[in-house]
Amino acid sequence: MEKKIKPMNRSITIACTVIFVLLSVLLSVVTYRVFTSAMYRRYQEQMTSVLDYAQSFIDDEDMARCAETYAESEKYQETHAAFDRFVDYYKDLHYLYILKATEPGDEFRIRSVCSANTTYEKTQTPDKLLRLGDGAESWYSDTVAQMLRDIQSGTEDVFFEDPTEWGVDYTLARPLINAEGVHYGVLCVDISINEIQNTIYRNIYICIALIMGLGLLFTVLLVLWMRTYVSKPIRLLENSVTKFAASSHGQRDPDELLFQPPDIHTDNEVEALSRAVTKMTADMRDYAQGLAEAEETMRELQDSVFKDSLTRVNLEAAYVKMSQKLDRKIADNNAEFAIVIVDVNGTGAINRKYGQSMGDEYIVGACMLISSVFKHSPVYRVGGDDFAVVLQGRDYRDREALVESLRKDFEQSARRSMTKQPWQCYSAAIGMSAYQPGSDPNTKCVYTRAVAEMISAKKEMKEEKQTESIF
To answer: Contact at 8 Å (CB) between 399 and 450?
Structure first.
């Protein structure tokens, strides 16, 4: 029984919808968490700044005496007035106050020391204002009262949520300590949690709406694009392939294996697939030849696997393969190439003085320098410290400039400095020879000439070194 095929349009629509929903939920959750964390950090920084500013008005010695005697001083009144002005100016603040956790035996566990009041509160509800020494424990649960006692005896600022009959406040409490080290009270600032949550939700709703709107728009556009450029062309191609399969079944005449391609102009892989299927009948006629070429390609791929384990460039066997291809081009009068031979200097000395591992590092570094210059040409390790490069195409046209660049790179690298080790100062002799039509019967001639150029360069380098050592 033939398996029922699911329509691609439906699958694409379902997949896009699921991805859209999951992405929207994920982004919404992440946005909420990140934004909530950021908002709380912002409010914490703001509340810390408020306490820093409020504490600058407090004379600890005077405020400690007032908290002990419950008698207002002139400085106390000035501080109280400053607190009042502060809450009048900053509307985001819910409360700003100083309270005291009393000693056991006191009538109240919590007493008010200095509570800021807005102008409205002072004019409209003066009878409800807290004065110095008033009991304030009715505002706090047992848990919060004990927390305030612990904060007063400590040294660190503490953030906590304080549920009251008017709602939940977010509180920052700071212990107050006079010069004698006496903990005489707690300076607090409150912000309404509702205000924080409202700000968070308002911005989160905007972000979520934006995410969902963009996600929905993206999904719709993606589905339309997929239908136009993928699912519909594939359906047309499927129909053509099905007809071809039916007509070619059991067909012995290759000329009858004709494929009628659909009219597809999508400029993507579907159109490329249609062209590939159109070429299928011709490929079948040339099957034997194609099989031989495939085997040849496979052998070439196998050869390319044999890389030098140290430098990761091609081995000498790969160069032999390349020279055979070049020889065939020479025989067909279709050759244009040059060979560069690079002999790395001083490898033996590095090995003897610093060890084999440093010698290997020296070879690898020199090879990397060669590969960085000849980026578009194959590099072959044809000896322990000898490398060959076959230049064709762009590198062949720029061969003189590239070789000169490599010489300068090696000259610059060979200069000793305090920041480089000896095995990081690379030196090499370079020779290059280009194929000469009519004069070179094979690649070996070009290679031999390049080696001769390299040897000549090596002799010059030795003579220059001896001259420098004399002077």
So the answer is: no
Instruction: Name the CA dihedral angle for 412, 414, 415, 419, rounded to a multiple of 10 degrees.
Output: 100
337 closest CA partner among 449, 457, 458 = 449
107 and 205, same domain (yes or no): yes
pTM: 0.43
Of the listed ranges 13-27, 67-81, 417-431, the one predicted with least confidence: 13-27
Residue 344 CA to residue 327 CA, distance in Å, equals 27
Backbone phi, psi, residue 71, to 5°: -120, 130
CA separation for the pair 141, 29 (Å, rounded): 33
Q: Cα–Cα distance between 335 and 326 in angstroms, integer?
A: 7
Within a domain: residue 293?
Answer: no
pLDDT computed for residue 402 by the predictor? 96
In a domain, 283, yes or no: no
The rounded percent of the chain whose pLDDT value lies above 90 is 44
379 Cβ contact partners less than 8 Å away, ≥ 6 residues apart: 313, 314, 367, 370, 371, 387, 388, 389
Q: How confident is the model over 420-426, as a mean pLDDT?
A: 90
Residue 114: exposure state from Cβ atoms within 10 A (0-12, 13-18, ≥19): buried
| Beta carbons within 8 Å of 128's beta carbon, 6+ residues apart | 121
Residue 2 carries which side chain, given as an amino acid letter?
Answer: E
CATH no. for residue 200? 3.30.450.20
Separation CA 435–CA 171 (nearest Å)? 85
The residue to which tokens 């009262």 are assigned:
145
Q: Is residue 275 part of a domain?
A: no
Query: Structural domain tally of the chain?
Result: 2
Query: Are 205 and 347 contained in the same domain?
Result: no
- What percent of the chain lies above the pLDDT cut of 70? 85
CA angle in degrees (0–180, nearest 5) for 400-403-406 = 150
